[in-house]
Amino acid sequence: MSRFQRSDVLAAMKRIGVIPVFYHPDVEVVKSVVSACAAGGATAIEFTNRGDRALDVFLDVADWAADELPEVMLGVGSVMDAPTAAMYIAAGADFIVSPILDAPTAELCNGRKIAFSPGCATPTEVHAAHKLGVDIVKLFPGGAAGGPSMVAAIRGPMPWAEIMPTGGVAPTEESLREWFGAGIVCAGMGSKLLSKDLLASEDWDAITANVRATVDLIEKIRSE
Fold it and tell me: Are 54 and 79 in contact (CB under 8 A)?
């Protein structure tokens, strides 16, 4: 089960502003990426359920993080159904993210008081997610679903909507200003933040620098 209260997880996601998103089959690489992201100030991190035996990798990393990086909140993404969510929650997931809005998954997470961010691409889906107890909705795929203009359009009639785009967000000032200016509360970032080249070269210092620069830039934009 999660080591954190749902309210604390949601607050951290919104406070930090960026959720690094990645998958790797090697446990030691995942540990290094998590450490690098945490050192850069992003302590809410999404490990995607995309590879064979991904759950086994997550189990090892979650146990390690509980001892070595107790401030880190580990979420799991690409969760498509309630049984998968239940396995990861039992393994210690602090939040669940999905590319789709699946009612049984939302109900399971709500019942366990686990933060759940389902993928939504229309106002109707956002409204349905809210009725299922979702706090932060994932706009997915962020760019293809309309980008910042879609966020602004959704928040027009639903100003209470808290939106986290994934896909289409870059760690640049231009991109972040546009997205946060439209009203997002945080953004999921994958390969544009944690590039395949950096993972392949195991340049953990560069990952830390990228994450720190992004966290600082978001703080700057918000302060203005």
Answer: no
Question: Which tokens belong to 5?
Answer: 């209260």
pLDDT digits (tens, 9 = 90+) for 136-157: 999 999 999 999 999 999 999 9
Dump pLDDT digits (tens) for 73-87.
999 999 999 999 999
pLDDT (mean) for 197-201: 94
In this prediction, residue 1 carries a pLDDT of: 81
Q: Is 159 exposed, middle or buried (0-12, 13-18, 19+ CB in 10 A)?
A: exposed
Task: Please provide the DSSP assignment of 151-212 as one string.
Answer: HHHHHTT-TT-EEEEBSS--SSHHHHHHHHHHT-S-EEE-TTTS-HHHHHHT-HHHHHHHHH
Contacts 24+ apart (CB under 8 A), 79-83: 79/49, 79/105, 80/105, 81/105, 82/107, 82/108
Domain residue extents for the chain: 6-217
Answer for the pair 9, 214: CB distance below 8 angstroms, yes or no: no
Q: What local confidence, expressed as pLDDT, does residue 91 receive?
A: 97
Domain 6-217: give its CATH superfamily: Aldolase class I (3.20.20.70)
